[in-house]
C-alpha cells in the first residue's frame, strides 16, 4: 500500500503543514521527527494530521501534488492544531 499524508507542526505562532507520500507512515513520521526527513521538516516536532491509502505509487504521488496545491484544505487541517493545544507543539 502507498499512503499520502499531511503532517502538522506548531512552534509558537508558526504553524506548518507538510505533505508527502510513503509506504510506511509510522516509519516516515519517525524519520521526520529524528531530523532525517526532508530539509523543511528538520528541527520540528511533527504529528500526523491526515492520511489516504492508494493501491499504486503513481496514484499516491498524484494525490500528493494535489494536496500540496490545496492550501485551503491544509489550512483547515492546521486549525486542528489550534483546537488541540498538545498537537504538534515544539518548545
Give a written overview of the molecule.
This protein has 91 residues and is α+β, with helices and mostly antiparallel strands. It has a single domain (2-83), classed as 3-Layer(aba) Sandwich (GIY-YIG endonuclease). The protein is 38% helix and 30% strand. The chain has helices spanning 25-33, 57-69, 71-83, and strands at residues 2-11, 14-22, 47-54. Strands 2-1-3 form a 3-stranded antiparallel β-sheet. A hairpin with a 2-residue loop joins strand 1 (2-11) and strand 2. The radius of gyration is 13 Å and the shape is globular. The termini are far apart. The mean pLDDT is 89.
User: How would you state the average pLDDT, rounded?
Assistant: 89
Query: What best-fitting shape do the alpha-carbon axes yield?
Result: globular
What is the succession of H and E elements? EEHEHH
- Uncertain runs are none
Compute the number of helices. 3
Major β-sheet profile: 3 strands, antiparallel
**Content of β-strand:** 25-35%
Strand order of the largest sheet: 2-1-3
What would you call the structural class?
alpha+beta
Query: What's the helical proportion of residues?
Result: 25-40%
Assigned CATH class: Alpha Beta
**Total individual domains:** 1
Give the termini distance in whole angstroms: 34 Å
CATH topology: GIY-YIG endonuclease
- What is the name of the CATH architecture? 3-Layer(aba) Sandwich
Number-wise, the strands total 3
The radius of gyration computed from the alpha-carbon positions, rounded to a whole number of angstroms, is 13 Å
Amino acid at each position: 500500500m502507498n499512503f499520502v499524508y499531511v503532517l502538522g507542526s506548531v512552534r509558537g505562532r508558526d504553524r506548518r503543514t507538510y505533505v508527502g507520500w510513503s509506504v510506511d507512515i509510522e516509519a516516515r513520521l519517525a524519520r521526520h521527527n529524528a531530523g532525517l526527513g526532508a530539509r523543511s521538516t528538520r528541527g520540528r516536532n511533527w504529528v500526523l494530521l491526515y492520511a489516504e491509502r492508494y493501491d499504486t505509487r503513481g496514484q499516491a504521488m498524484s494525490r500528493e501534488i494535489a494536496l500540496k496545491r490545496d492550501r485551503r484544505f491544509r489550512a483547515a487541517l492546521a486549525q486542528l492544531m489550534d483546537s488541540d493545544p498538545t498537537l504538534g507543539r515544539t518548545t
